[in-house]
């Protein structure tokens, strides 16, 4: 592998290795924009009296992070989380804090599990989703005893994750081909 | 999948510093975010401006899609209506017959009521309607049950004002933008409404259960006074909600704290009325989201 980049592994990794970045400005902008758009899907006019819709911003950010670990530094979760907080009307700082902590943990995970497969990625995402929803529950002033109410949402979010990651992969291929 | 490269910067001093700075920024950011959460819990009004702006920015988007999703959800109801049209027709004919006599009685009672009130020189206010508007969305993925309406502080909407629809109480305003506002729905675990039983006037409190149902707590100790199908009206206690607005119907009366279903289904409700706080001198709702009672919410 020395001296040869795997296909599409451009970005920061290439920069650090002393090579010029091969990816256009547009292709760099696509992942953050797609994440903000996913957060924006949360304001679609669906009025429900129980938490049902999976947190799409979180799913997308996890999809990108697990698909392309070299894409973002951990601090990138701060602006993305801030946008998600403002768009979805959560307590300000919730997604900012949880997403960044998830990114930091994933950096450690990257060191530990050098070669991951699809199922392991899914398991990591599942843990991250549960953590994030629980954190949102606590930050909005609710009691931990209410957690069972959010089980359906968690289950749905975990089941939706492969789909979201698939969509991220499709977008990724599209943006790098341009 | 091969391990990513950028976590091992090698001997390049610049890359090492860059990596370290990234982690420092991330950590500082997390601390700031946690401080923001704490600040919001203490004083939510501090974020009103920026949150209101974000609300205003997303409201047109939500409103544009509202008609589409409402049309889709109506379609299901239409098909269902055809399915049992005959049975419904018979049932409704019967209901109309019984309602007609009840209506005559109600008219007589209203007249007598007004006469007795005049006799007592009782001061009664009629709740003033601030604006009638549409529910355009909700935070379906969020952890609190909030809905967005298409009117904001520009229309006179203020935090704390009760919101009702034709069917019954929907909730109360909790934050406002210029042209949109968020309301805390009855079903949120932090919402508590003082009610009384329509049948015999027994006082109770209705709290959101978080899953679309409400929990009813009678204020008088003793036997469970609720029956299945009992109607709950606001009592006007506390001065926030006007009295005699329908709130919910008891659905399960066997449990220790019976469950009720809100009459105004926010999913189907399109137009709502924002009303003035009933007795502003008595009610001073705390700003922002109420926190949930500790052990009470355990389902």
TrEMBL record, chain A:
Transmembrane segments: 29-48, 86-106, 118-138, 150-169
Keyword terms of this UniProt record: Membrane, Transmembrane, Transmembrane helix
Protein name: Rod shape-determining protein MreD
Source species taxonomy: Bacteria, Pseudomonadati, Pseudomonadota, Alphaproteobacteria, Sphingomonadales
TrEMBL record, chain B:
Domain of life: Bacteria
Coiled coil: none
GO biological process, one term: regulation of cell shape
GO cellular component: plasma membrane
Keywords recorded for this protein, A-Z: Cell shape, Membrane, Transmembrane, Transmembrane helix
Domain Rod shape-determining protein MreC beta-barrel core: residue ranges: 135-274
InterPro entries to which the protein is assigned, alphabetical: Cell/Rod_1, Cell/Rod_MreC_2, MreC, MreC_beta-barrel_core
Transmembrane segments: 20-40
The keyword Membrane is annotated on this UniProt entry: yes
Sequence similarity: Belongs to the MreC family.
Listed name of the protein: Cell shape-determining protein MreC
